[in-house]
Amino acid sequence: MKETMIAFAVQDAIEWSLLHGMALKTSKDSAMHCTFSFAPTLIRRERFELLKSIVPLMGKLIHGVSENHEFLIEAIEPLCSADAFFASLLELHQAIHLSSVPAERIPMLLMRTDFMDDAEYGPKLIEFNGIAAGMGPFGQRAHELHHYLGYQWPAAFQSWSETGSMELVPNHCIENLAKGIAGAAKTVRAQSGDVGQPLFIMVVQPDEDNVYDQHLLEEAIQQEGVKTVRRTFRQLYDQLSSGDNKRLLLEGLGGVDAIYLRAGYQHCDYVAHDLEEVRCCEALGKTRVMIEQHRVALNATVSQQLATSKRVQMLLSSMTIDQLMEFGLTLDEASRIKPFLGEMKPVDDQSAGWFEHQSPKDWVLKNQGEGGGHCVFDHEILPKLKRLQEEEYSAWSLMRRLHPRHRSRSALVVRRGEATPVDDLISEIGMFTLHLDGHSLTSELGYAGYLIRSKPSSVTEGGVHSGQGAVDSLAYGE
């Protein structure tokens, strides 16, 4: 195929991405397309259906963990000396659940469960994302882009695909999440006795660049008959108040029915420079406490955020089936989940000596941070283990590294307007679920859609927003 034809197809794909909001903001008045793969990655149909059946059970497990407040306190307390952020989260959790004022919020678990499909061991859990679980809309847009390219540029599309004929895996993440969130908001509104449109708040970071993913979801929620507004924690500090019957009120708009946090997973989200410096973070943290004391569908609750931490993930990975059942799973459910939890080890004063006898490529050292830049790989692990102080051990864990199959032929990745062949592209599979107080908010037991992020196997930071990853989609194949 002529290179000029590929170039035309790539340029059309870039323009399609910008036209359909698959973009990142670069300044107040400009944006660039999100990095994407030109053709999808393959997955066996039975493997996809298996993961699709497992993730609702993961949602059930995390809901059970998040509502077991005694367990969460015991799990997170060891972190507090090493991680100031989790110490503050635990304080918020205790203020919510050990207070004389009851926690009236209805937990709405919007979670993305991330897997890698190891070439030897099969799919294993990488992490739970229980707060600011985003990019579902980009996952759907990537699927739609590949559908468009297969129709509009079939020869170019096939030339960069792994197989000659394929069936794209459906992905209706935007609609499923929007219908579920709108349904939760309508339920709360009906129970309150209020009339009029339900009100949904998306809590955001000021001046962030990953806004189009958020706006795509907001627009779909609006189409479901729900009014949506965007607010920072600083704005909510001034604008929230209490109404009758535990209603949360937003200044000028009345009763709030549902809230989705796209902020709150790092200290800077709680900083307000116009408040007294020593108490600004505490003041904005108390906004979360206030929210949870009202009758509102909420993601993420503080307990959901703690339950999806790396610390709790490590503890769950080491539990027996009987121990997993203590969080509300049946014997069959716990038995089905257990093989996917992967292998994680706590860090202690013996870890460095033990690691000297391991292959560095078999493990990843992780702390509690969200997003990119929080993992240590390969020959940097042992020196880091040796530098850790005793009080830091609980903030870190070792996870067995996964090595998925890379594509059988070169893939084309389009980044910043340039298309580059990649010989070793591997993929991470994120599956979205949505539940309200443990009950499904979608027609498929809580499953809502998927996000595929692909990267070269030699790259450690695979995030699309802050790494070398590309949004991708799935097609059935061998």
Automatic annotation (TrEMBL):
Gene Ontology cellular-component annotations: cytosol
Residues spanning the signal sequence: none
One of the record's GO molecular function terms: metal ion binding
The keyword Ligase appears for this protein: yes
EC number: 6.3.2.3
Keyword annotations: ATP-binding, Glutathione biosynthesis, Ligase, Magnesium, Metal-binding, Nucleotide-binding
Cofactor(s) in the UniProt record: Mg(2+)
InterPro entries cross-referenced by the UniProt entry: Glutathione_synthase, Glutathione_synthase_a-hlx, Glutathione_synthase_C_euk, Glutathione_synthase_N_euk, GSH-S_sub-bd_sf, GSH_synth_subst-bd, PreATP-grasp_dom_sf
Record bears the keyword Cell division: no
Superkingdom: Bacteria
Pathway involvement of the protein, from the record: Sulfur metabolism; glutathione biosynthesis; glutathione from L-cysteine and L-glutamate: step 2/2
Domain Glutathione synthase substrate-binding: 200-307
SUPFAM superfamilies to which the protein is assigned, alphabetical: Glutathione synthetase ATP-binding domain-like, PreATP-grasp domain
Membership in a protein family: Belongs to the eukaryotic GSH synthase family.
PANTHER family per the UniProt record, alphabetical: GLUTATHIONE SYNTHETASE
Protein name listed in UniProt: glutathione synthase
Biological source species: Endozoicomonas elysicola
